[in-house]
Amino acid sequence: MTDLFDLTGKSALVTGGNNGIGLGMAEALASAGAAVAIWGRNSDRNKEAVESISAFGGDVFSFDVDVSSEEAVVEAFAGTVDVLGHVESVFANAGVGALATPFGEMTTQEWQHIFAVNMEGVFWTFREAVNHMKPRRTGSLVVTSSVSAGVGFPRGEHYAATKAGVIAVIKGIAVEYGRYGIRANAIAPGWVVTGMTDEFIEGDRFVENVKPRIPAGRWGTPRDFAGIAVYLASDASVWHTGDTITIDGGYLQY
Ligand SMILES: NC(=O)c1ccc[n+]([C@@H]2O[C@H](COP(=O)([O-])OP(=O)(O)OC[C@H]3O[C@@H](n4cnc5c(N)ncnc54)[C@H](OP(=O)(O)O)[C@@H]3O)[C@@H](O)[C@H]2O)c1
After folding, report:
1. 115 backbone φψ class: left, alpha, beta (φ>0; ψ -120 to 50)
2. How far, in Å, CA of 251 to CA of 27, rounded?
């Protein structure tokens, strides 16, 4: 039987692939045999990530892209197709966290910035992706949502709204594009130690209040997203669409 999880000959794009969860997914995709492109704003971090992903095998490319710019996304997607030839899976993972501002003090600018990256960035990335995938009759779209999409997230209403919004987007795409062999799913991580969280996640109050509510007994790591990334990029998931897969060490069940 052929290896369902073998990504040899396939290509994947991971936005926000130079750090954290995106880097964990990109390394896993490369080690399963995929050619990988990563997008991020920080050029130095992009270069470092290309080196670390390359250690897992395959061709790896990076693009300096700010996904909150429509023009930048359109240009980078075309450039990505140029270097990879074809893109079978697109992980819209680039995102920014909330500043823990009380809702009553939240500025319009703060609200709009979170939406520009976490929501519009996903829209433009997936719009370019479906137009590439539709004539090829195959493709997997994956967005990094969050457990905050489904529970109250105080001082992060804007962040949680974007993470709930992208779930609605993948459900619509799953229905609209299923006939073209395109599937769309979301991953909802719980608390994961990354560049987004490392400043507060090991703080005394956070460890005391949040860690005991994780049945698995530890924070997540980027490696915890390796398996789901390979599964969703592979032929093993061809009939899996419109779903949100929670990976949180049991946090939501507590
Ligand atoms: N960590 C958690 O506990 C957690 C939980 C639930 C969901 N998530 C989600 O997981 C995803 C990845 O976050 P992470 O935790 O891995 O954080 P991270 O380590 O800070 O990584 C964020 C990534 O997104 C990129 N990025 C940020 N803004 C961007 C922009 N405007 N354009 C292009 N790239 C941009 C960053 O690269 P540059 O800075 O170089 O642009 C970086 O590669 C996010 O969507 C986040 O909301 C995280």
Report:
1. alpha
2. 25
Return the ∠ at Cα 199 (arms to 95 and 17), rounded to 5°.
Answer: 30
Burial of 219 (0-12, 13-18, 19+ CB in 10 A): buried
Please give the helix or strand (H or E) that residue 77 lies within, else none: helix 70-84
Per-residue pLDDT, 202: 86
Strands 35-40 and 89-92, bridge-based pairing: unpaired
As a whole number of angstroms, the distance between CA 61 and CA 69 comes to 20
Ligand 1 and 144: CB distance under 6 A: yes
Q: Could you tell me the CA-to-CA distances from 74 to 81, 90, 102, 253 in Å, in that order?
A: 11, 14, 35, 39
Complete domains list, the chain, with CATH: 11-253 (3.40.50.720)
What does the pLDDT read at residue 58?
Answer: 84
Task: Give the atom of ligand 1 at the shortest distance from the alpha carbon of 94.
Answer: 24
Q: What is the pLDDT of residues 213-235, one digit of tens each?
A: 999 999 999 999 999 999 999 99
The structure's pTM equals 0.98
Residue among 91, 196, 246 whose CB has most ligand 1 atoms within 8 A, to mutate = 196
What are the mean pLDDT values of the chain's consecutive 10-residue runs (254 residues total)?
89 98 98 98 98 95 98 98 98 95 97 98 99 98 98 96 98 98 98 94 91 97 98 98 98 95
Q: In 10 A of CB 196, how many CB atoms? A: 17
